[in-house]
Specification:
Order of helices and strands: EEHHE
Number of strands: 3
Strand content: 25-35%
Distance between the termini: 19 Å
Radius of gyration: 12 Å
Helix content: 40-55%
Shape: globular
Oligomer: single chain
Structural class: alpha+beta
């Protein structure tokens, strides 16, 4: 069964809630925690929120999470 994984992204004054979907398992829950912990390193490479959002989505998708729109 799939479940939503939700993160509140922040870059400067910009904020956005982004939803992803993946299996509801202990393995994916652990991957989510590790991905969230590593996200700050991704953000350090960008100078604007659009680039950061694109990179963050790609980062989570590489970890096995599919973006969903809400």
């Amino acid at each position: 069964m799939k479940k939503p994984y939700i993160i509140g992204l922040k870059f400067g004054t910009w904020r956005n809630e982004v939803w992803f979907s993946a299996e509801d398992s202990e393995e994916m829950n652990q991957k989510w925690k590790e991905a969230v912990d590593g996200l700050e390193e991704v953000g350090n490479s960008y100078t604007n929120s659009n680039e950061f959002l694109t990179a963050a989505v790609e980062y989570f998708e590489e970890k096995g999470f599919s973006r969903i729109q809400r």
